[in-house]
Structure formats: C-alpha cells, structure tokens
Amino acid sequence: MKHTGSTDPPRRAPRDWAIDTGLFMAAAAYGVLISGLRVEDPHTAGTIPVWLFNLDQAVGLLACIALWFRRRWPLGLALVLIGLSVYLEMVVGAMLVAMFTVGTRRTPQVCLALLCSGVVASFAHALLRPELRLGYSVAETVFQNAILLAATVGWGLYLQHRRQLVVSLRERAEQAEAETRRSAELAKRQARDEMAREIHDVLGHRLSLLSLHAGALSYRPDMPREDLVSATTVLREGTHQALQDLREVIGVLRAPVSELPQPTLEDLPVLIEETRRAGMSVSLEIDTPQAPPDRVARAAYRITQEALTNARKHAPGAEVRVAVSGSPEEGLSVDVTNTPPAPTTDGEASRSSNQGLLGLSERVSLLRGHLEHGPTDEGGWRVGARLPWSP
Known about the structure:
Layout: H1 14-40, H2 42-45, H3 50-66, H4 74-84, H5 92-105, H6 108-128, H7 138-219, H8 225-250, H9 268-277, E1 281-287, H10 294-314, E2 319-327, E3 331-338, H11 355-366, E4 370-375, E5 381-387
Parallel strand pairs: 1-2
Antiparallel strand pairs: 2-3, 3-5, 4-5
C-alpha cells in the first residue's frame, strides 16, 4: 500500500506558479544586468578577478534556483542569501525576493530584525568590496541599500496586512450572515411562541365554556325540554365560535399576528356576557378616562380571559369580580378576584399546571409590567396586573 505523508507541502496553484516564475526571472534578470555592467565598466573590468566573477555568477544562479523553495523556508533562505551578499553581489536580486517573502509571512518584529541584518551585510559589503562602490562613499552606499531593503520588506508587510484584512472582512461577513440566520430563527421561534400563547388564551376560554355546558347536560339528563334546547343551542354556537377562533389563530401561519383581529377593552363586556351565559356570576368595572394603547388593552383582555378560565376550572360556583382602571399617569391595573369555590359533590379539586399563569407572567413582563397572583384572606383567589400605559 502506498503511504502518503501529511507533512508534504501543498501543491502550487497556477497562480503560485506564475508568481514564482515571475520572481525567478526578475532575480535572474538582476544578475544578468549586473554581470553586463561589470563587464562593460572599465573601472571594474580589470579589478575583479575572473574566478571571482565566475563564482559570483554561479552563486547568483544557484540563489535564483533556490527561490523555488522560498515558500517552505523563507526566513532561512533569506538569512543565507544575506550572508552571501556580504561578499557577492549577484545574489542581491534573489535576496530581495527572499526578504519580500519573509515580509509577507512573518511578524513585523522578525521583519525588522531581518532588515537590520541586511543593512549590516550591506555595510560589510561596502567595506570588503570598495571597487564596486563606483565613486560612492560607504555611507551613501549603505543608505541607498537600506532604502531598497526597507522598501522591499515594507511592501511584503503591506501585502500581509492586506491579506489579513481581506480574511478578517470575509470572516466578519460570514459572522454577519450567521447572525442574520440566527435572528431569523429567533423571529420564527418568537412567532411560534406567540401563536401558542394565542391558541391557549382563545381556545382555552372557549373550550372551558363548552366543557361547562356539556357537564351540565350530563348531570341533568332529565331537565325540561326548553332548557335542553337552550343548552344544546349554546353548545352549537360555542362550538361554531371555537372553530372561528381556531381559524383566526391558525392564520398566524400565513400572516403576522399583528394582522389578525385583536381584542381590546371594548370587547371585555362581550367576554363577560359569554361567561355569564355559561353560568358564572361575574361583575365588571371599567374606569379609564381614555382608551389605552392597543398592546396594553390587548394584554388586559388576555389577562382577564385567562383569569376567568382559571376561575371556571378551579373555583366552580364562585363569584368573580373584574376591575380595570388606570390613566396615562398611573398606568393600567387589572384585578380579577373570585370567592371560595362552592363545595363539589365528588370532593375532587381540579389541579392546575400553572401554564396559564406562566404565560400571563411572560406577557406582562414583555410590557415591563408586574403580575401578582395568590389566595385571598377569604379563601378565594386573586390575579392582579400592573401595566405601564406606554410600554
């Protein structure tokens, strides 16, 4: 079986091949240009030994070939070429390419140390090869070389910073896209929660009324015909109304909740009348100088509806008092209080899962209000909410 190691360098892409070829040709062209200048210059033609000139060309060619390994050992190659440039000059082209590569891959601290090494090597070169200065002083030669080296390393650092910036912008774009998806999922989850709350508030009240009438029929099968017809009529109308409410609530799957018909305080008398028709004793008091905002009015209606449903299930036969009052300065108050339940014939008490109260607490907290619930001194139960007029 053929084994493939994981330490192999990644294959060059066509773009990498094009870049490496271009840099190799640029470094080789630099060596050819320097060779031509030294041959034609009468000041250096007789002062440079033939063996040294040939050695310089050979090492320069090997340095250009070594550039094909610059991606694997950029810093090591740059240090070797800097060392060779102390006495040889045709490796300078390859050295600049290697230093540029280090600038694109290493930290600014490493690049600065490499730049200082290059300047020191340039100073040593100016002292060891005075025939190559061509009339320039040591200081002038070192200054010119330092500018060239700084420009090369600085260009590499700029490209590195630009590459990192592009990567950072791409990551930010991906994070923003992920955040958008999370926001969309959160909005869907909130819509589902609101739909579940509407289903609980609307159908819970309506179905509890139907259960109450059906229970009356099962306890009084011998009731007069007129009462039987009246009870079955209420059941038929309640069932029809429950189906209508269900269609409206399910419409949230096709339209936002805000587009569905929403109850307000003006609908409270209708709710109270339906509850009275189911046999409960309910009184209503509304004392508001002006209509509250829609969100507050809708919350007050749902609080009253849920409290009546709980009283009907857990305190049968109790008297219920509903009081709604408030003003823009004081906020809106909703109090639903029931007396102790009447004794049951079977002695069983209805158990509560507290899901309705949890839903009311969440609804009130969204409006920055406060919900209170608990037993009264007389043995009954009270649900009270305080809502800000402008949430």
